């Protein structure tokens, strides 16, 4: 009883105090009054709009997520088998800050080559990252911390999130020419001029293969010239390799740009992702590596990468890393993976041909040669934002407003519908 009285008295004292009642509610609700809604993400926002559309005809060629020919998400057979093998393991401990050592070891081989001297000499500082995005962000933070006065040169156009990543890491961004809208190909001379005119020792972001969004890559010869010019200018090359295997169907071939830079003696950085080539999108598994002068420097750099990771997310997730190391650590599963990557890449290449042929059969007055010339997951169609808006509002076809079509979402079932809609919105242009 006495206890109940004491509680009631305390409650009424609180009600009378100036920090209680309406006043405190008002001040609490005003904490975030200056916060404006964030703009929709140009890629993931498209998925949100697609999901909200009840139309049975809807088609999502927005985000770069692979679908089989029935439009269904794919879990690779090698991944299913790896999952079966690790199912018995009840290991749930934290990974080290730098992630799974085994996964990182296997991942480096894919980028630097199975017999890479740099791996043997332990010259690579590498950590498991939260997929490709996390690798880019970790590198951007590392860049800011240790080379705070230098800038990053980013191609025009690029994956929209690159700008967000280096912005949030507070690294000053510059751009370099990459794409030629008239030829729908590479603006090689513009690119070389920008590389030449950048201050010595600048940082450049390069897409290792299957450039997003354009699907346009330099040829091998052009990569050699770019590498030579980088040498002359002492520039740093940071490769974002989010689509290894998706360009040619062969991960070793798709690492050619990187291998050229390595042969030429560059000390590069690489972001690798298993989202697309192993279909591990939501597992968030990737790797950031930085090639150093020697083992001692690599140990030091790795310690700093870990130091950056620790206050952000402490250590990376376990399950995806187990899947990757199980697959790549077993020759049979690895060769199954290579076959499956090729199947995905070939299906996309096939859809490019069908899309182009369908547009030509419809009598489109425009050239669609670029649809088959471009490589990787995306077709940079040349559709204007207004034409894309019409595709969405009249045909329930969802894609980014820059006219990028995720070819991975095109199937035998929807390619005719897509071609017809594209024809309808472009025929008078
Ligand atoms: N780098 C490039 C060039 C990418 O296109 C993407 C993904 C990433 C990194 C990051 O991928 P990850 O973090 O999932 O490994 N681009 C997608 C998805 C496929 C996205 O925007 O997040 C795209 O549709 O462009």
From TrEMBL:
Domain Aminotransferase class I/classII large: 57-422
EC class name: transferase
GO biological process: amino acid metabolic process
Cofactor list: pyridoxal 5'-phosphate
Gene3D superfamilies, per the entry: Aspartate Aminotransferase, domain 1 (3.90.1150.10), Type I PLP-dependent aspartate aminotransferase-like (Major domain) (3.40.640.10)
MF-aspect GO terms: L-aspartate:2-oxoglutarate aminotransferase activity; pyridoxal phosphate binding
EC number assigned by the record: 2.6.1.1
Family in the record: Belongs to the class-I pyridoxal-phosphate-dependent aminotransferase family.
Subunit structure: Homodimer.
Official protein name in the record: Aspartate aminotransferase
Protein species of origin: Microthlaspi erraticum
